[in-house]
Each structure stands twice: as structure tokens, then as C-alpha cells.
Design goal:
The complex is a heterodimer of chains A (298) and B (322). Chain A has 298 residues and is mostly helical. Helices cover 73% and strands 0% of the residues of chain A. Chain B has 322 residues and is mainly α. Classes of the chains: A mainly alpha (298), B mainly alpha (322). Chain A: One of its GO terms (cellular component) is plasma membrane.
């Protein structure tokens, strides 16, 4: 068996055996399962509000929720992927990188006549397979829950859209897993190794979009896109920082797939997410600095 | 008491040498300043748009002009307060976790137990040290915020602003003390440090981000860009009348939100600083009338977390090297 396949198999086994990140995985799967219900309950209430407004004679505008796609109920899942999924992926990456140091086998592996880049690539492949499995479960949950809410199985094109969203989710998650692996390899303590990707995530999710839109940081967690800020320095900043606004690009391309309102080019956004994943994985494979000693003690 | 003070002093000495404290202060300070810069730029952009519009109206010969956008200095801190809400909670968890995990990994818990009267003393001594540290960090954040509003925002800072910002700082202190107490308790009770750290991360995610996010996205007005009621051209008074028909839904949504201490902190801070429009320009007595429930709620959460931490000290003998 090649080094890459052996490392990938070992990574898969070790990740499944490590019980510590299970709480994050459970939170992720649980919130994905709940998101369809939240989306459905909200849409039902808003439609009732519209009917009330119409009955009171307060508006002549058409119902903005008429003929929404069944996948519209999934819009909250996009946010849970950003919130919980990306942090779960980063945490799995950190744990993968710290495992050998904790077991004090990192130096031992270094003595073996194997290409270290192949070992790193194999480990990331193992993580990628694990994340693909988790994403497949979330998409299955989504498919079943939306079908149950609308009372009929999703059509072929809707199923394809869910599958496309799954691919996009996987790209984002492996990107954050790569950042987690890098952090785990470069930083000495477990606490800082875990904190660093969270701070990177917070900068990508809150700071960068805020600089380009003047939006409030927490409002960026609403799946509904904010009205574009086209004046002053923001238009320029928005353009300049656009490649770094990974989470906003993920929201845009996901909204396009799931039939929700969005602004900008969905294709470009999907490409930005893919490029982010490639860069993070390449860096995690090629950067050679490894801490083999010192444990992870606080 | 002297035993607690000795332990607190030892914790502070440890923390003074810990780079994470400087990372926390630097990150929060930069986030607050950055938010003030963004809010100031936004205000200037709005002002420029308004002036261009007024010029157009004047050129067209119409005498009716809309009201100019107004600058309320403390409203520039909205983003900064949200960063404190999200990031300070995370940092408080990490610092609280570290205060116990370091003793575990160094194997110095037994040594501490030979000096202190009980495990509870150790835990509370550490929390006292953390409370002093967070008081200093929050005081620094208050100063940074006021200086940023005065210099970047170009606003005048008077006693009124200082008093309100100080109240927001105290609220922030109670908030982070909750998170540090939870972290100390969970780390003390959990044999596996990694397990403790990940449990705390999940707690942070759920309480700080997920619960408020659910409440926010269930808000009927947040369903379409720009707001549902604005899109339907409905006045504020009519909006309240319509929502009165959906009081059960609104109560459930509100109940979900206030189950998170983050939302309690946010509501009190936003009211105190006048970020929430209905409190802007009102006295602190009016703010108190509208927010005292949130203050009591936040105190209850923090008191419960401190009690939990104190109780966890009784099981400190279970700590093992991980």
C-alpha cells in the first residue's frame, strides 16, 4: 500500500477513535437536522403575517414568499456549515496534527524512510474522506427533512442542487481542516493551536465582510444577504477584500444553488471557495515546519 | 481570605508572563478600533449621499428635504461591542481553561493542595485572579473605545459618554467572568484536557453564536434584504399591531434569545450606549426600566457559574496528568 493510502487509512481510524470532537460533530449534525424545521416554521409564520397584513388592508405588495423553492427551507444550513462545520473541520485538523505529538510518536515517524509530504497528503486525504462522509450524512438529513416538510420527495434537479451544495460544503470544510492541521503543526500548545484557526475564522467571517460592507459583525450570520453598500470607501474595500471573504462567497454560491436570493456571481464565488481549499491544503502539505517534541502541555 | 489573595496573586503573576493575555488585549482593542473606523466611514458615506441628494432636490426647485443623518458617538461602538460579545467570551474560556489545565499538565495540583485549605479555595483563588485580570482588560477596552470614538469618529466625549461606556465595561466584565467560571468548572471536572477544551468550544458556539443566530433568523423582519415590513411599506405602528397577533411566536423567539447570556449582555449594552434606537437620547433611568430583567438574568447566570466553579473545586483531587 502506498504511503498516502496508509496514512489516509490511519488518519481515518484515529479520527473515528478520538472521541473528543464528537460533541462538535453532534452539534453540527443536530443543527443541520433542526435547520429545515426552523426555516419551515419561520416561513409559515411570515406567510401568516403577510396574510394578516393583507387582511388589514395595509399593503398591496405581492407576497415575497410565494412560490419559494422547497430548498429555501435549507438556507439556515448554510449558516450552520459556516458556524459549526468550519470550526468542526478546523478542530479535526488540529487534533490530527497534535495526535503524534501527544503520543510522542512524531519523532519516530520522522526516522522512517518515507516521504513526509506523502504522509501529510495521506493524512489530509483521510480527513477529507471523513469530512466527505459527514457532509454526505448532512445532505441526506437535508433531503429527507425537506421532503418531509413539503410532503413530496425532492425532484432530480433539487437533489442535484443539494448534492452541489454538499460539494461546496466539503470544499469549505477541507479548507478549514487544512488551516487546523497547519495550526496544530506550527503552534506549541493545544489551547493556542485551537484558538488560532478560530481567530482566523472570525477574521474571515466577520472582519473582512464588515470592512467591505459596513455590516454589523453578527448580522453577517443572517442567511438573508445585506443590501450592498456601494458608496464611499466601501465599494473599493469590498472589491479589494473580496478574495478573502470566503464565507461570504460560500453564502453567495450556496444561495444560488438553493434558490435563495443572492448578490454577485455564484460561479466566481464557488471558484473562490475552491481556490481557498486548494491553497489551504497545499500549504498544509508543503510547509515543512513540524514540532516533534515538547508535547502540548499548557 | 489571605489564602485566596495569595492564590489570585500567583495566578496574576502566571498570566502576566502568558502571551495570550496580550493577544487578547491586542485583538479586542484592534477589533473595537476597526469597528469605529468602519462605522465612521459609513456615517460619512451616508452624509455624502445625503448632501448629494439635497443638492439634487435644491437644483430641481423642490423645497422639501429629508432630515440629515445624525451622529450619535456611542453608536459607533456597535460592531466593537459585538466583537467583545463574540471574541471576549472565547478568550475568557481559553484563559479560564488554561488556568486549570496548566496545573494539571505541570503536575502541580497536588502541590497546591498541600498549601491551600481546599480545592474550592484553589478554584476561587484562580477565579479571583482572573476577575482582576478581566477588570483590567475591560478598563483598557473602555479607554480604547472612548479614545477611538473621540479621535477616529471626531465626536466629543463628555461625562455622559464616559458613564455609559463604563457601565458597558462593567457588563462586559460580568459577562466574561461567567465564561471564565464555566471554563474553570468544566476543566476541573473533566479528566481529559482535550475533552474539556472541545466541550467549552461547543458551549461557546451554541450560547454565543447559534442561539442568537436562530433568534435573529426567526425574526419576521429579517427574512428579506432590507426588512419585510419595509418591503411591504408598513409603518412602525402598524408593524407592532400586526405582530401582536403573533405574540406566541414572538414570545418563543424572545425566550430562546434571552436563554443566552450573550443576548442579555448585548441588549443591556446596546440600550446603555443608545445603539438601540428606542433608548437613544434617554436617561439611564429609562434604560434601567427597559433592561433590568437582562441585568438580573446576566447576574443570575454568572452567580450560577461561580457556584458551579466553587463546587467543582471539591473534585479537584480527580485531576490527572493528560
Amino acid at each position: 500500500m502506498s504511503t498516502v493510502a496508509t496514512a489516509a487509512r490511519h488518519e481515518l481510524l484515529a479520527s473515528v477513535r478520538a472521541k473528543a470532537p464528537y460533541a462538535l460533530v453532534a452539534a453540527f449534525l443536530g443543527m443541520v437536522a433542526a435547520s429545515t424545521f426552523i426555516g419551515w416554521r419561520t416561513t409559515v409564520t411570515v406567510t401568516a403575517i403577510y396574510q394578516q397584513v393583507l387582511a388589514d388592508g395595509l399593503t398591496t405588495q405581492p407576497n415575497p414568499f410565494t412560490d419559494v423553492s422547497p430548498l429555501y427551507y435549507v438556507r439556515n444550513t448554510v449558516i450552520y456549515v459556516l458556524l459549526i462545520g468550519s470550526l468542526m473541520a478546523a478542530t479535526l485538523g488540529v487534533q490530527s496534527a497534535l495526535r503524534d505529538r501527544r503520543a510522542e510518536t512524531a519523532a519516530l515517524i520522522g526516522t522512517r524512510p518515507v516521504d513526509q509530504r506523502a504522509v501529510r497528503a495521506g493524512r489530509l486525504a483521510g480527513l477529507g474522506i471523513l469530512l466527505a462522509g459527514l457532509v454526505a450524512i448532512t445532505e441526506l438529513i437535508t433531503w429527507i427533512s425537506v421532503s418531509a416538510v413539503v410532503g413530496t420527495p425532492l425532484t432530480g434537479s433539487e437533489t442535484l442542487a443539494v448534492a452541489g451544495f454538499g460539494v461546496l460544503t466539503w470544499l469549505l470544510l477541507v479548507g478549514f481542516a487544512g488551516i487546523g492541521v497547519l495550526s496544530g503543526r506550527l503552534l506549541r500548545r493545544e489551547r493556542t493551536a485551537l484558538l488560532a484557526p478560530v481567530v482566523v475564522w472570525a477574521v474571515i467571517a466577520f472582519v473582512v465582510p464588515q470592512l467591505g460592507t459596513a455590516a454589523r459583525p453578527v448580522s453577517l450570520l443572517n442567511p438573508v444577504p445585506l443590501p450592498a453598500q456601494a458608496s464611499g470607501a466601501f465599494a473599493w474595500l469590498s472589491q479589494a477584500l473580496s478574495p478573502l471573504a470566503i464565507t461570504e462567497h460560500f453564502k453567495t454560491s450556496s444561495a444560488a444553488l438553493l434558490g435563495s436570493p443572492y448578490a454577485g456571481s455564484a460561479l466566481v464565488s464557488a471558484l473562490v471557495v475552491a481556490v481557498f481549499a486548494c491553497i489551504a491544503l497545499t500549504a498544509a502539505i508543503l510547509i515543512r515546519v513540524d514540532r516533534t517534541t515538547g508535547g502540548t502541555h499548557e | 481570605m489571605s489564602e485566596l489573595l495569595t492564590l489570585a496573586r500567583k495566578e496574576l503573576l502566571d498570566l502576566r508572563r502568558d502571551r495570550i493575555v496580550w493577544i487578547v488585549l491586542g485583538t479586542l482593542g484592534i477589533a473595537v478600533v476597526l469597528s469605529v473606523i468602519v462605522a465612521s466611514l459609513d456615517y460619512r458615506a451616508q452624509l455624502a449621499d445625503y448632501e448629494a441628494y439635497v443638492a439634487q432636490v435644491t437644483a430641481s426647485g423642490s423645497g422639501v428635504t429629508p432630515a440629515a443623518p445624525q451622529l450619535f458617538p456611542l453608536q459607533l461602538l456597535r460592531g466593537g461591542m459585538e466583537y467583545v460579545e463574540v471574541l471576549a467570551a472565547l478568550f475568557a474560556l481559553m484563559i479560564g481553561y488554561g488556568s486549570i489545565a496548566k496545573e494539571r499538565s505541570r503536575g502541580t495540583v497536588d502541590l497546591l493542595l498541600t498549601r491551600a485549605r481546599s480545592g474550592t479555595s484553589i478554584v476561587m483563588g484562580k477565579l479571583l485572579g482572573l476577575a482582576i485580570l478581566w477588570a483590567a482588560i475591560m478598563a483598557a477596552i473602555v479607554v480604547i473605545a472612548l479614545v477611538a470614538v473621540a479621535t477616529v469618529g471626531g465626536a466629543a466625549i463628555g461625562l455622559h459618554e464616559i458613564a455609559r461606556m463604563t457601565l458597558a465595561g462593567v457588563a462586559g466584565w460580568v459577562y466574561v467572568l461567567f465564561w471564565s467560571s464555566v471554563a474553570v468548572a468544566v476543566t476541573t471536572l473533566t479528566r481529559n484536557s482535550t475533552g474539556a477544551l472541545l466541550t467549552l468550544l461547543v458551549a461557546w458556539l451554541v450560547v454565543v453564536l447559534v442561539i442568537p443566530q436562530i433568534g435573529d433568523t426567526m425574526d419576521p423582519d429579517n427574512q428579506i434584504p432590507g426588512g419585510l415590513f419595509k418591503a411591504l411599506a408598513i409603518a412602525k405602528a402598524d408593524e407592532h399591531a400586526v405582530l401582536a397577533h403573533f405574540s406566541t411566536y414572538e414570545s418563543a423567539r424572545n425566550g430562546l434569545e434571552v436563554s443566552s447570556i450573550s443576548k442579555l449582555y448585548e441588549r443591556f449594552t446596546f440600550a446603555t450606549l443608545g445603539i438601540k434606537e428606542i433608548y437613544n437620547g434617554h436617561s439611564l433611568a429609562v434604560v434601567w426600566d427597559g433592561t433590568f430583567r437582562y441585568v438580573y438574568g446576566a447576574f443570575a447566570f454568572t452567580a450560577a457559574a461561580l457556584t458551579f466553579a466553587a463546587a467543582s473545586g471539591r473534585r479537584i483531587h480527580t485531576l490527572r496528568r493528560s
